[in-house]
Amino acid sequence: MMSSERLRQRIVAAGIVLVAAFAGSAIYDGWRLHQQIMFATERELGNLAKALAEQGARNLQAVDLLLRDTGEWWETAGQALPPDEISAALAARVSGVSQVSVLTLVDREGMQKYRSRVTGEPLADVSDRPYFQSQREGSARGLYINEPVVTRTDRRPALVVSRRLTKPDGSFDGVVTASVTLQELQASYSAIELGEGSALLLTLDDGTLVVR
User: Fold this and answer.
1) Beta bridge partners of 162
2) DSSP letters of the chain?
3) Contact between residue 114 and residue 86 where contact means Cβ atoms under 8 Å apart
């Protein structure tokens, strides 16, 4: 007959094996749950990033449409209007695009000529700005988004989005610009709750940080 000591050892060993099995199962289940939570979180963050990117693209398309339409209007009819009517027309055009703070027409020398609203700042020479130089030289190839600057239009940090103005013969005739303030960009994303320690970054294609 098996001695009581050996029986007790086998019972203890069996118990240890059983406890180890339960512990291993619990660890595996915990690992699987962690993986599932991580996968779900990554998927949700990916969907959020995609949605925000699409929203940003739609906002930019609205600004681009405004610039295109304003440029065509200026070259075909706008220049013949009195100054007061030009400013009023610019104000009417920008009223439906909330992300745009100021719409500005700049002549071929780089001097601001008309704005969509009075900003309290004098019309400025922007011939040294990268967006003007790129549009004048033709290297912008359409829409140009300047990296964040403090604008001379209303002295606020903003993105300046621009398009080239072109005469009927194809020559350079200035620039039409839209200022999108960083404050406006921050406000459009401020309702998103990412949790403590998380951040939302908006960058240009080259990685330039626009707003955090």
Assistant:
1) 144, 177
2) ---HHHHHHHHHHHHHHHHHHHHHHHHHHHHHHHHHHHHHHHHHHHHHHHHHHHHHHHHHHHHHHHHHHHHHHHHHTGGGS-HHHHHHHHHHHHTT-TT-SEEEEE-TTSBEEEESS--SS---B-TTSHHHHHHHHT-S-S-EEPPPEE-TTTS-EEEEEEEEEE-TTS-EEEEEEEEEEHHHHHHHHTT----TT----EE-TT--EEE-
3) yes
Q: Could you give the CA distance from residue 103 to residue 74 in angstroms, rounded to a whole number?
A: 13
- This prediction has a pTM of 0.69
Average the pLDDT over 131-156 and give the result. Answer: 87
Contact (CB, 8 A) for 107 and 119? no
Structure token digits, residue 14 = 């069996």
pLDDT tens profile 24-35 = 777 877 777 777
Across 50-69, b (16+ Cβ under 10 Å) vs e yields: eeeeeeeeebbebbbebbee
23: Cβ–Cβ under 8 A, 6 or more apart, which residues? none
> Nearest to residue 191, comparing CAs of 62, 44, 52?
52
Rounded CA-CA distance 161/185 in Å is: 14
